[in-house]
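My current task is to audit a protein record that another person submitted. Alongside the sequence sits a line of tokens, each denoting a local backbone shape. Please read both lines and tell me whether the tokens look consistent with the sequence. Do not assume that whoever made the record got everything right. Thanks in advance; the entry in question is below.
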Amino acid sequence: MSDQVITRFAPSPTGYLHIGGARTALFNWLYAKHTNGRMLLRIEDTDRERSTDAATAAILDGMAWLGLSWDGDAISQFERAARHREVAEELVRMGKAYYAYETPAELEAMREHARANGLPPRYNGHWRDRDPSEAPEGVRGAVRIKAPLEGETLVRDRVQGEIRFPNKDLDDFIILRSDGVPTYMHAVVVDDHDMGVTHIIRGDDHLTNAARQTTIYDAMGWDVPVWAHVPMILGADGAKLSKRHGAQGIDAYRTMGYLPAAVRNYLARLSWSHGDDEVMTLDQMIGWFDIDDINKSPARFDFAKLEALNGVHMRGMDDAALTEALFDTLPYLPNGEALAAQLDDAKKAQVLQAMPGLKERAKTLVELADSLYFIAASRPLQLDEKAAGLLDADAKAVLKAVLSHFQALDEWSAATTEAAVRACAEATNLKLGKVAQPLRAALTGRSTSPGVFDVLAVLGRDESLARIADQID
């Protein structure tokens, strides 16, 4: 086995890259980076009826969005079928596997007989030691591995510990179907061996597969890789993860306005931790990650925690970088394309100028995009219900007063407009909020926004005065 750590991510292209698959990919990627190793990608597309090019594209796109690159070309398992058959036939020649010729009806009768006698429905080894000359004429048999009949198979797992499987429970499973198509169980072993994989990090739903796959490794005399079976992800309520919990494709998280860095950070913390560290950079995760620190217990996926973490990552980003990330993501956000069409270069510059105040109030890029309304909108502004409710006759009188204070200003900035509003409040014997609230509604069309003086500075003198005048008229 290679001295260099080689991990692999091996998704089936029968659907999107879901959140559990994304975490598996991340753990393989982090461990490869942590050890200066390599991560390979294999598309397990042997199920021809359910595998699609669209699903493969969605998986590759999801990995690219998360920033998880792989070494070398992506491998198609289906294209390696000839190699899988070659190994199966070699096992037959070595006496480690054999052809079995039961019909589907005979196999069902065998299972029924076992059940009737209170036994698990295993293959009974009928063809295990028979002479090949007894094979029925014109019938193509399936190849079955000769599993050990006694003792137990030990799986040493870096997450789950040592697990012992009684060999009587493994039975002589099929490695090559009668139509010459290799089974998943067999193809995986051949591929992992040929690709030089040293560490298999995957979901614990594959734990029993590890025992069966060990049988093939041992029969071929190949080194068994290091196993690390990670626990499943549950919903926040402890139930199996479903769409209502967040079991969408990873592309849905982009549409919901999450940053790749925040999703990576959150996924890394599902069943793995480094002390009390919650917020991590990519370099920190790579430096700290080790499979020995993965928990055995199932993790719980909590949207509220992901959203809070996303807000932390947004606030920690450089304003220009966050602005660029927002513009790049707009095509994927609800109504994002329409918003992008409203933002010319001048308005994009205003977005950057407003970003310090905007990002303080947003936890997702969707919320951030929504807060751009006051920059993107054209006059006269469409007021939302709350803003319209604020602008009654008294409020319009306040706007008239503040407008005259603004018109008298020689210099336009957050500081000078704040001084003017305070002077207006004092002159009209009102609290500052009673002036600021209708002013915010007139300027932004909303009842909430970044600081009203920042809004005035971003919009500039002419646009601000025009919007106030629109509401007075």
Q: What stands out?
A: The first helix runs from residue 19 to 34.
